[in-house]
Amino acid sequence: MIKALALKEIERPFRTTFATSLGSKDRLTSILVTVILENGSSGTGECPTSFVQKHETTPEIKRVLGEASAFLIGSPIDTYREKITLLRHRYTRYPMTISGLETALWRAHIRHGGIPEQTYFGSKGKIVETDITIPFLTEKVSLMKWMKYIIKKGFTVFKLKVSGRITEDRSLISAVCAMLDQKRRDYSLRLDGNQGYSRSTFPKIMDFIMKNNYPIELFEQPLPKNDFDGLKAIRKYATVPVILDETVFTGEDLSKALEEGLCDGVNIKIAKSGILESQKILATAKRNGMKVMIGCMTETMTGLSVAIHMAAGTGEFDYIDLDSIYFLHHKSRYGALTIDGPRFIIS
């Protein structure tokens, strides 16, 4: 039985400004939620804050979790899936809050059953190698400092945040590629628009990339999440896979995107979709031959570790984007996980 829920607000400074087309911040802010069972078992999840869900502030997260606790306390932990489904429908505007709560319930449930996290999703792999995000940093000193840090770490795949402002994006892409050309030839670059582009500006950046032969691997969420007509229109200009992020929170969202022909793939984030919906999205994507990425919000290892285990255990993901821990001052070991450069090793 569920005995109690405990909440803790955390803040951590970033190593560099985390900037996208949606905004910028210098600190991580999350709510950790712990589910405590009557037998002493417990599980903790993380509810991060994000530019994408600006209304999911720490006071609002606490409010929703407080209301949810009254619904959950006294319930058998075995019924957590049904409870989470009901809560997700009740709090449709708070998907990240409910996802963090789901992780806490899931952890309490599997620990109660004696199931290790690293085996829950399967045992296909023990090593996961992630890309690293390059924020939208237009100030040269900050950009060079971050680039020096991540290149030294051994990363070979980079995800560059672009803004939708053509002149600034051209300059940033050129600067990043010039730095990478000097340091390593075996790199690939992913672009993340975070909804900053439009159907008129997207062809222009594609032309620029093609003319300069930049090694762009994919373009994530170039247009606003609800611009279905625009997303359909730009497909003919895209010379790389278009991966949706903010457009898809649920399995139903992905089914709509497939019906409309909006994309080549999807970025699955447990932090925004939870474990159950992430599994549905993954199954739908694989069934339809789509590319799949696993990503994260600005999370500590509390939240990030679930996605690492899912990526390693299933072995189903084409792109790994689990880099939030590198923006923090961090340890090299967290329980069964060891961080070795861009790799997570599961013992």
Can you describe what's shown?
The protein has 347 residues and is of the alpha/beta class. It folds into 2 domains: 2-112, Enolase-like, domain 1 (2-Layer Sandwich), CATH 3.30.390; 118-346, Enolase-like C-terminal domain (TIM Barrel, Alpha-Beta Barrel). It is 40% helix and 24% strand. It has 11 helices and 15 strands. The strands form 3 sheets. Strands 5-6-7-8-9-10-11-12 form an 8-stranded parallel beta sheet. The chain has a 4-stranded antiparallel beta sheet with strand order 4-15-14-13, with helices on one face. A 3-stranded antiparallel beta sheet has the order 1-2-3. Strand 13 and strand 14 form a beta hairpin. The radius of gyration is 20 Å and the shape is globular. The chain starts with a strand and ends with a strand. The mean pLDDT is 97.
Q: Helical content, roughly?
A: 40-55%
Going by CATH, what is the homologous superfamily of the largest domain?
Enolase-like C-terminal domain
Uncertain runs are none
For the record, the count of structural domains works out to 2
Instruction: Give the neighbour order of strands across the main sheet.
Output: 5-6-7-8-9-10-11-12
Order of helices and strands: EEEHHHHEEHEHEHEHEHEHEHEEEE
